Amino acid sequence: MVETWAHLLADIPDELGLAAFAQHCRASDRPPTPADVRRLCELPSALPSSGEAWAEAIEAARTIGYQDGEVPDMSCAEVRAAAKAAGWSSICHASTEMQLSTTRAHFFRIYDGIASRTDKERQRVAIEGSVPAGLLPRMKRVDEAIAAPKRREINSGDPQVAA
């Protein structure tokens, strides 16, 4: 059963999973399922999608344009940072579809990285304080805890250890 839970929740960081598990146990009178833990781990992103961010940057390039190299204010700092990193000049002055496509690809890659870091930070802040201090450093990753008895069996040759 532990291996099944580990497999179903493998993509969720231990800290976030433990915080979601604890949150469910405090709020519900029934035991959690993997779906309950997953649902509690999902924080909706407040950021626009890559396509929406690109549309905003293109609209700003068309309406405001290139003014002293400054990227204008956007709906959020992540869109502005991606526009700056991808090259505001390149966005504003792309003269061919090929140049614009290349700039769009760079913008998407940069924005996705920025948005991912922002979402991870939001998750970290959301679980901060949910897990008792000192517990996480003692914890092993679930997959490591499952693999340890199997490694001992291989090293000792004792099939009873694998149970």
Summarize the structure.
With 163 residues, the protein is mainly alpha-helical. Helix content is 67%, strand content 0%.
Mean pLDDT: 80
Question: Given the structure, what is the number of helices?
Answer: 9
Global morphology: elongated
Q: Biggest β-sheet: count, sense, barrel?
A: none
According to DSSP, the number of beta strands is: 0
Helix content: 55-70%
How would you characterize the overall build of this protein?
- This protein has helices spanning 2-8, 14-27, 34-41, 50-63, 77-86, 88-93, 97-127, 135-138, 142-156.
- With 163 residues, it is mainly alpha-helical.
- The protein folds into two domains: 2-42 and 132-162, no CATH class; 50-123.
Write the layout of secondary structure elements.
Layout (H helix, E strand, L loop, with lengths): L1 H7 L5 H14 L6 H8 L8 H14 L13 H10 L1 H6 L3 H31 L7 H4 L3 H15 L7
Which properties best describe this structure?
single chain; 163 residues; mainly alpha; 2 domains; 0% strand; elongated
